[in-house]
Amino acid sequence: IFEYNGSAIVAMVGKNCFAIASDRRLGVQLQTIATDFQRIYKIHDKLFIGLAGLATDAQTLYQKLVFRHKLYQLREERDMKPQTFASLVSALLYEKRFGPFFCQPVIAGLGDEDKPFICTMDSIGAKELAKDFVVAGTASESLYGACEAMFKPDMEAEELFETISQALLSSVDRDCLSGWGGHVYVVTATEVTERILKGRMD
């Protein structure tokens, strides 16, 4: 069921910045339905979540998370830190563990002193933290290989964009369930840059 719609998501850290990227294909197994599907969602200016897995569950989960985050903003009068948000997502998924959301979230954000934070988790909320990159989706095996080969510590925003884009595009070429270009966000302390990558087939 996790492979029903196909997906590829990767988040990578740089020097006081991070990038998160996904493919744009929405399929029903091998049939392509849309080529401009949104998999990465903005929670606030310094926090993004990518949801791989079943597309309908991803959209439902996102709406629940937006609701929880807005409540937090009202109560605390501030944005949620990435670590806090990761715990929220984890708790929400674990709550539904006997009938889980078929989603694999990738969370990326800037925490205190603009230190990048990335993590992913399985469908019942078991967190996996990393200091370099995290991947999710049907293309995750080839993403691991590409990221392992291309990642360098302390990259500036522009080099980070180049690296994550190359890793994503070369990985989805090796997975028939994901692809059709990419959607990349590069986030620094002062700005959010959003770019659309053309796929090899466009």
Describe this structure in words.
By secondary structure, the chain is an alpha+beta fold. It has one domain (about 10-195): Glutamine Phosphoribosylpyrophosphate, subunit 1, domain 1. Helix content is about 30%, strand content about 35%. It contains 4 helices and 12 strands. It has a 5-stranded antiparallel beta sheet with strand order 10-1-2-11-12, covered by helices on one side. The chain has a 5-stranded antiparallel beta sheet with strand order 5-6-7-8-9, with helices on one face. Strands 3-4 form a two-stranded antiparallel ribbon. Helix 3 (about 140-150) packs antiparallel against helix 4 (about 155-170). The relative contact order is 0.24. This is Proteasome subunit beta. Belongs to the peptidase T1B family. Its main location: cytoplasm.
Share of helix among residues? Answer: 25-40%
Q: Taking all residues together, what is the mean pLDDT?
A: 95
The global form is globular
Name of the CATH class: Alpha Beta
Order of helices and strands: EEEEEEHHEEEEHHEE
Work out the helix count. Answer: 4
Instruction: Determine the N-to-C terminus distance.
Output: 28 Å
Question: Oligomer, anyone?
Answer: single chain
CATH architecture: 4-Layer Sandwich
CATH superfamily: Aminohydrolase, N-terminal nucleophile (Ntn) domain
Task: Report the biggest beta sheet as strand number plus sense, adding barrel if it closes.
Answer: 5 strands, antiparallel
The total domain count is 1
- The largest beta-sheet arranges its strands as 10-1-2-11-12
Structural class: alpha+beta
**Percent of residues in beta strands:** 25-35%
Q: What integer value in Å does the Rg equal?
A: 16 Å
Question: Low-confidence runs (pLDDT<50, min 5 residues)?
Answer: none
Q: Tell me the number of strands.
A: 12
As for the CATH topology, it is Glutamine Phosphoribosylpyrophosphate, subunit 1, domain 1
Subcellular location: Cytoplasm; Nucleus
GO biological process, one term: proteasome-mediated ubiquitin-dependent protein catabolic process
InterPro entries: Ntn_hydrolases_N, Proteasome_beta_3, Proteasome_bsu_CS, Proteasome_sua/b, Proteasome_suB-type
Keywords: Cytoplasm, Nucleus, Proteasome
